[in-house]
Amino acid sequence: MKKNYYKKTIDLSEAESRQLLTLGDSLIEKGFLRQFSGQQTKVLLYLLTHLKEANKIEIQLPLAAGSLGLEMNELKKSLKGLSQLGIINYQKTEQNNLFNCFLNLEAVLKTESQLEKETETQITGTEVREQLIKSNSASKRELASALISFLPPNNRNLHRREEIKSWLNDFEPQMLKELVRRVDKWLKRQGGNDHLQGAYAYLKAIVNNWYQAEITSYEKLKKQDKLHRETKELARAYGIRSFSSNTAQLKTFQAWLTGEQALSKELALAAIREAVRRKRDGQPSLKYVEDNFINPIKELGINNLADFRRWLQKEMDGQAGDADQRDQAKTKSEAKQNNSKTKQRKNNTKQDDNNYKWKDFFIDFDKYKE
Predict the structure, then answer these.
(1) Which residue has the higher pLDDT, 283 or 321?
(2) Same domain, 203 and 123
(3) Scanning 4, 175, 231, 284, which has its CA 20 to 30 A from the CA of 216?
(4) What CA–CA distance (Å, rounded) separates 307 from 43?
């Protein structure tokens, strides 16, 4: 038997209220509010209760901010977000405190699932991602559509959508846009067009790495990327071609490039190359590199290649101990001995010549005795 339901209405209006807003439970349960942030929801409710003819809205920004308990910059940010979602179309006004816009009521009433279905039927995942990558800014809805496009349609379940929603709250939009670009590039290298088995797993591995490294801003991401590139350069200079970012060796390289006494990539590279050059009997250990180059550089406050070369010439080249220095010392000693022998031969020759000359000019004084 079909049950009869009676609508219950809760009236939160006051006697002087001029506009009433009715919001049904079924619309909320279908995800109506999921497409908005908390502040955007507050601002949207304010706009809906200040609607004029032809869906036009005109509000005083200071009054709205005070009513909603928001800072002015927070209010403007929420209005911009609603504009990016297509909910409002605002018009610039000469008065800074006055805000005019038109409300797109159809966009307001569409639930998040309806919007995603429309997007999926209109364009492919590849096109969704290309549009996002080329755009100067992106809404949360566009980011969510691009992220979920890496999954086959039959795997786009509620669990995945909730997972992506948490990323939208935890990471800056520019980071997620960069995430889409990287995974899309990887997907094309693998030969996948729209989506491919493993693409979402690759995407999730990057996100997990961000969580572990506590990277939540785009600036931190750029610093991490720079550190990763420089670490790879040090590894290649040391002789490592195949490696994982979690190996102890790479963590040692990263320690040289970070912290209060962080070295520049150029100085660290110079230290490794010098250690490899001097250690001719095999690859130097990282401890050898640290003890003989990295630590002295830090202790002496050397911060450029010119000072590093002068230090090498003054300190390192004057020490005996490693193979290269012994070879140099041996060469110098042999050269000195050879010079001494040559000099001695010259002296002997000169002496013989002198003796020969005195022999030629010998005078027999006894012959001329009186």
Answers:
(1) 283
(2) yes
(3) 231
(4) 60
Same domain, 189 and 244: no
> Does residue 301 lie in a domain region?
yes
pLDDT at 179 over 90: yes
Q: How far apart are CA 236 and CA 269, in angstroms?
A: 10
Q: DSSP character for 150?
A: T
Q: How far is Cα 173 from Cα 218, in angstroms, rounded to an integer?
A: 9
The pLDDT, as a whole number, for residue 198 is 81
User: What range does the domain containing 187 cover?
Assistant: 112-216
User: Is 357 inside a domain boundary?
Assistant: no
| 91 touches 101 (CB < 8 A) | yes
Residue-wise pLDDT tens digits, 245-300: 557 888 888 889 888 888 899 999 999 988 888 877 777 888 889 888 999 999 88
Confidence at residue 30, expressed as pLDDT on a 0 to 100 scale: 67
CB distance 149 to 122 below 8 Å: no
Rounded alpha-carbon distances, angstroms, from residue 74 to 61, 68, 78: 11, 10, 6
The residues facing 60 across adjacent strands are: 98
Residue 41 lies in a domain: yes
Where would I find the H helices in the chain? 25-29, 38-48, 61-68, 72-84, 105-109, 112-122, 125-134, 140-148, 158-170, 173-189, 199-212, 218-238, 248-257, 265-278, 286-289, 295-300, 305-314, 323-360
Relative to beta strand 56-60, strand 88-91 is: unpaired
Judge if pTM exceeds 0.70: no
